[in-house]
Amino acid sequence: MHDGTYAVSWSGGKDSCMALYEALNRRLKISHIVNFISDNPQKVRFHGTDARLIHLQSQALGIPLFQKVTSWEEYERDFKAGVSELKPDGLRGMVFGDIYLDPHREWVERVCGEIGIEALEPLWGRDTAELLAQFIGLGFKSVIICAKAELIEQQWLGRTVDSEFMQYLADKGIDPCGENGEYHTLVVDGPLFKQRIELLESQAYEREGYYLLDIPQYKLGPG
Predict the structure, then answer these.
(1) Spatial distance between the Cα atoms of 192 and 177, rounded to a whole number of angstroms
(2) Alpha-carbon span 162 to 64, nearest angstrom
(3) Could you tell me which of 215, 150, 222, 221 has the C-alpha nearest to residue 185?
C-alpha cells in the first residue's frame, strides 16, 4: 500500500473509470475524483458532459467529487491551484487515463511535478482493443455521448459501448478507445458502482463537426 492518497482525473468516461479501477487494484487509497467544468453552461471540459451527471457518478461510486470551474485559457493554472487544495489532506498523486499520447503524458508529469505530486498513468502503453474489451468484459456500461461527425454516424449516440460498436470502429479503422478524441462516453454502471445511472431522456444534435447527446433527465437506480 502506498502512503498518502491519490485523486483521479475524472472526465466521466470509460478511460478515467478504467484508470480508477486499475488504481484500486493497486490498492491505492482514492480520496477524490477531480473534474473541471466550464462556467456557463456548466459542462465537463473536453467531453461536454453536464456537470450534474458527474455529481451523480460520484454518488454512485461512493467517492467524493472535487469539481472546479475553469476556462480553456486558464486550465493549467486552475488545475494546479485546484489540485493543490487537496495536498494538506495528504494527497500524494493524481491518476490519469491516458493510453499513448505523449503530449498528454508530458503535460501531466510536468504539471504534477511543479506542484510536488506524483502523476500515475496505469493504462499507459496498453493495447486499446484489449483495454476496451476488458472494460466491457468487466461489466462496465458506458454510453456514447460525443462523436466526430466525419467518423462516426449519429445513430450511435446514446448507445452502449459493446462488441458491436468495437467491430464498427475496427471496420472504420478508428482507435478502439477513441484516444484521439474520435468519441467520448459517460459511464453509467459497472463493478465499482454502488448504484447505476438511468438516462430517462436524451436527444442527439450536431454542433461544430460533432454529434453530441443532450441528457435532460436522469436518476440513480439500484446497483
Answers:
(1) 20
(2) 28
(3) 215
Cβ atoms of residues 141 and 187 within 8 Å = yes
Q: Tell me: the pLDDT tens digits for 137-156? A: 999 999 999 999 999 999 99
CB 194, CB 147: distance < 8 Å = no
Q: What pLDDT, in 10s, does the model give residues 50-82?
A: 889 999 999 999 999 999 998 888 999 999 999
Domains delineated in the chain:
5-120 (3.40.50.620), 139-222 (3.90.1490.10)
List, as one string, the DSSP characters of 18-67.
Answer: HHHHHHHHTT--EEEEEEEE-SSS-BBTTT--BHHHHHHHHHHHT--EEE
H or E element that contains 179: none
CA distance 218 to 51: 13
Q: What is the mean pLDDT of the chain?
A: 94
The pLDDT tens digits for 192-216 are 999 999 999 999 999 989 999 999 9
List Cβ neighbours of 26 (8 Å cut-off, separation of 6 or more). Answer: 2, 122
| Banded pLDDT at 1 (limits 50, 70, 90) | very low
